[in-house]
Design a protein that fits this description.
2 domains, 351 residues, Aminopeptidase, 12 helices, disordered N terminus, alpha/beta
Length: 351
């Protein structure tokens, strides 16, 4: 079996859930409060138990009001499901969004989906154990009114974090978001065309529409479904790592368009996107966080990825012949705290 490795400097993964957050922030910056409150009512709001015990937060570690009030951590989940009504879906992308009020930064930490985590219900090769891949964290909680809380607890307990809220978006709704901004211009290679078309066929069948295939290679304008097919390509080039690069390429194109929206276009775009967002954040909390970011001009965005690509930080492991991404918890978690809290990391008490 071919050994799988984590490639260096391939961790910049702006994904669908990040796009939604950026979109909301852009539109809030140019819209009246009552207008936005009306729009935010379209979001799927969920109630979760935010007690430290329910969310797996170590209160001995996070006992500082200074830390808890100045570093806001939110779990971002992009799920991949063929039918949300019957399948909560696997976490295709998982990130920790940090609003760092001390250093005036937005920080994003990407967590690799194949990481072997503790405190989960083992399935398949890990059945009967308390370990499984990170990507089951939303599905195992049962989706709405359970999946988010389960996911937060899993991440907090494995990465020594104090996350209290989550935002979830279905990756399958990506085509609607791209169409809402009028499509994107992407340079598609000859090898990518047939593979993208296979995914386009799959999505079109699910949505009951005629496939709109990519007909040639080169720079071209892609519709939402075409862009989704392009983003799903996994086995052309450098597998998962190059897939995240394709996602980044498309999302950056979308974000550029978002910054040029007129108020009317912004209103229409929110109407399209917000019904596909699920979050434990209240409307007041969304407005408060967005307003803080905008009024303090937090345009500096830093990114990090776990596990890190350092000797001894990650390794290939097999359970019953099935591949998992192993990682050194102590080393990776220590560096995560340094990334998020910087010079305040010493204020976060560790065991």
């Amino acid at each position: 079996m071919r050994k799988k490795t984590v490639k260096n400097k391939k961790f910049k993964k702006p994904l669908i859930v990040l796009l939604v957050i950026l979109l909301i922030l852009v539109i809030i910056a140019t819209s009246a409060g009552f207008f936005i409150l009306g729009k935010l009512s379209k979001i799927k709001s969920t109630k979760i138990d935010k007690s430290s015990t329910a969310l797996g937060i170590n209160t001995a570690q996070f006992n500082s009001d200074y830390i808890n009030n100045n570093y806001i951590n939110i779990l971002l989940i992009g799920v991949d499901t063929r039918d949300p009504s019957t399948d909560p879906g696997l976490a295709d992308s998982t990130m920790i969004l940090t609003i760092d009020k001390v250093h005036n930064k937005i920080k994003l930490t990407s967590l690799m989906r194949d990481m072997l985590l503790d405190n989960l219900r083992g399935e398949g090769a890990t059945a009967g154990t308390d370990q499984d891949r990170l990507n089951v964290i939303y599905k195992q909680g049962g989706g709405v009114n359970g999946g988010g809380q389960y996911a937060i607890k899993a991440i907090n307990s494995n990465f020594d974090m104090n996350i209290k809220d989550y935002i979830k978006v279905d990756f399958g709704d990506f085509d609607k978001i791209v169409d809402a901004v009028g499509g994107v211009d992407i340079n598609v290679s000859a090898a990518e065309v047939p593979v993208a078309n296979d995914y386009i066929d799959e999505v079109s069948k699910l949505e009951g529409i005629t496939p709109d295939h990519i007909t040639h290679a080169g720079m071209q304008h892609l519709t939402g479904i075409q862009a989704l097919g392009y983003c799903r390509i996994r086995y052309v080039g450098d597998e998962d790592f190059q897939r995240t690069e394709r996602q980044r390429t498309v999302l950056l194109q979308v974000f550029k368009k978002l910054t040029t929206l007129s108020p009317t276009q912004a209103s229409s775009t929110l109407d399209t996107i917000l019904p596909y967002v699920e979050t434990s954040l209240s409307n007041t909390e969304i407005l408060s966080d967005a307003s803080y970011i905008l009024t303090h001009k937090m345009s500096n965005m830093e990114q990090f990825r776990l596990p890190e690509d350092k000797p001894g930080y990650n390794f290939t492991t097999y359970i019953k012949g099935v591949y998992f991404l192993g990682w050194d918890k102590a080393k990776n978690d220590a560096d995560l705290l340094k990334f998020i809290y910087e010079d305040d990391a010493s204020k976060v008490q560790t065991n």
